[in-house]
Design goal:
Blueprint lengths: L12 E4 L9 H16 L3 E4 L13 H12 L22 H13 L3 E4 L3 H13 L15 H9 L5 E4 L6 E6 L3 E6 L7 E3 L7 H11 L4 E5 L6 H11 L5 E5 L19 H6 L4 H10 L6 H6 L5 H7 L14 H13 L3 H10 L4 H11 L9 H9 L7 H4 L6 H17 L4 H15 L3 H13 L7 H8 L1 H17 L1
Parallel strand pairs: 1-2, 8-9
Antiparallel strand pairs: 3-4, 4-7, 5-6
Helix pairs in contact: 6-7, 9-12, 17-18, 17-21
Bound molecules: glutamic acid.
Length: about 500
């Protein structure tokens, strides 16, 4: 092929680029599925890139959880940090030098500039703009510093960021394959920071540089990135590169149509796996979102396999109205898959998930010293196997506390548990510290949590039980408890 190869002839290469900031999200699976199908249908490659440049939000265990969740669903990638590939490394933290060089290129061709403003100055400017009811934007202080001013600041060791120089006038347009032309006026596009003062790139720079160097033909991502796209398109131009095609998928919604959130729906794929949802049902459910399957199939049956999706799914069918992530529907679909199993398959499914040898032996170890007959096993452990346990006020309400303060405290417990590493060494002091700071005794504190997690005033050791039950399911149980109390 010659240099004149146009974009449409370029081999299809797509990617998902999750940030390892916590549990893998159902939205990642949704976008992953669409990218996977698109790659397979076009004989292309599906790349997994880990966008881990935001060190403040980085969670060390997250990357492995992303790998595990995508593999559980059967969305295997052709190139990625663990499997390698010709365009690696596929982890952005290992590409720092590449971003530095590219930021340098933009400084040299004057499409970017060094910004020496301090965080305090930026904050003051932001406040003023908000007070004046203006959208907060970089005021341009460092856009036109003279070479001498820049030299002096560099010599004095003043820290700086690198910002892109968005043209003052005019507009940038791009084509979204589902929406048609989208235009942003430059006066509404901020001089985005490309390199932070810690030497790490921002999402925008790293994403564009990598999509180009990894020869990505089609960027298929969530619509929340549409407002970033004009910045990206400008960056492609600044570098003198062709931009890929853009497809922005509708955001998944809660039943009330708000953007999907963990307050209203579990969003962690770890939760769905541990709670006994089947990967086939989850993929099928995600495939229904937005209507990528032909209407005849959707109308005849809402049940289809990945193989059927490969055959019939068409990204161009995706409708833009926010698809609703309706848990009732997912549960129904999951039930359909369970009922379609042979008894042997059903038993095997139980034994590989909620009744696996690994889980049962951990639970057995927790109750061995607490039963007098083996028949009592279930009395102490039913909460591990139940989908929910909803304790009555007699069970969860401490004697000297009102309902309101108890629910407030339970909300605090939830926040602490969300933020704490799921180990005994981390959980116990975190909970105790919360109790101390709010004047709740250890007994009140742990009894409340025990009631919420186990539904009972008696249980095997609480923290050990929570560890076996898992973070995702424990948090879900707490959220459901708080939600149910709120509705009363
Ligand atoms: N790192 C971004 C994310 O977490 C990637 C967005 C994109 O696909 O460009 O979703």
């Amino acid at each position: 092929m010659t240099e004149s190869t146009s974009r449409t002839e370029q081999p299809v290469r797509v990617r998902i680029a999750p940030s390892p900031t916590g549990d893998p999200h159902v939205g990642t699976a949704y976008i992953g599925l669409i990218n996977f199908l698109y790659a397979q249908q076009h004989g292309g490659k599906f790349v997994l890139r880990i966008e881990d440049t935001d060190r403040a939000r980085f969670v060390a265990t997250s990357e492995q959880m992303i790998f595990d969740a995508l593999r559980w669903l059967g969305l295997e990638w052709d190139e990625g940090p663990d499997v390698g590939g010709p365009f690696g490394p596929y982890r952005q933290s290992e590409r720092a030098e590449i971003y530095r060089e590219h930021a340098e290129m933009l400084l040299e061709n004057s499409t970017a500039y060094r910004c020496f403003c301090t965080p305090e100055e930026l904050e003051a400017a932001r406040r003023q703009q908000i007070a004046a009811k203006l959208p907060p934007r970089y005021p341009g202080t460092c856009r036109n510093l003279s070479a001498a001013e820049i030299e002096a600041k560099l010599a004095a060791g003043v820290p700086y960021t690198i910002r892109m120089k968005v043209p003052a006038e005019g507009s940038t347009s791009f084509r979204d394959e589902l929406r048609g032309a989208i235009t942003f006026e430059h006066r509404n596009v901020d001089d985005q920071v490309l390199m932070k003062s810690d030497g790490f790139p921002t999402y925008h720079l790293a994403n564009v540089v990598d999509d180009h160097l990894m020869q990505i033909s089609d960027v298929i991502r969530a619509e929340e990135w549409i407002s970033s796209t004009p910045k990206h398109v400008l960056l492609y131009k600044f570098f003198g590169w062709d931009a890929p095609r853009f497809w922005h998928m509708p955001l998944l919604r809660n039943v009330d149509k708000s953007k999907i959130s963990k307050r209203k729906n579990p969003v962690s794929l770890v939760y769905y796996r541990q709670a006994g949802f089947l990967p086939e049902a989850m993929l099928n459910f995600l495939g229904l979102m937005g209507g990528g399957m032909p209407a005849e199939i959707n109308n005849a049956t809402e049940k289809f396999t990945l193989a059927e999706m490969l055959e019939h799914f068409d990204i161009k069918n995706i409708r833009l109205g926010g698809p609703v992530f309706d848990l009732t529907k997912l549960r129904w679909l999951n039930g359909e898959y369970l009922r379609a199993m042979t008894p042997e398959q059903f038993y095997a499914a139980l034994r590989s998930t909620v009744l696996s040898d690994a889980t049962l032996s951990r639970i057995a170890a927790l109750v061995q010293t607490r039963v007098e007959t083996l028949g009592e096993f279930g009395n102490l452990t039913h909460f591990f196997f139940a989908d929910d346990v909803m304790p009555a006020p007699e069970v969860f309400l401490p004697k000297k506390r009102t309902l309101e303060e108890t629910l407030d405290f339970a909300g605090e417990q939830l926040a602490v548990l969300e933020a704490t590493e799921w180990t005994h060494a981390a959980l116990e002091p975190a909970l105790k510290q919360l109790g101390d700071s709010k004047g709740w005794s250890v007994k009140e504190n742990f009894m409340l949590l025990r009631a919420i997690v186990t539904g009972s005033t008696m249980s095997p050791p609480l923290i050990e039980s929570m560890i076996v039950f898992g973070k995702a399911r424990t948090l879900d149980r707490m959220r459901r408890f708080l939600e149910a109390q709120k509705r009363k």
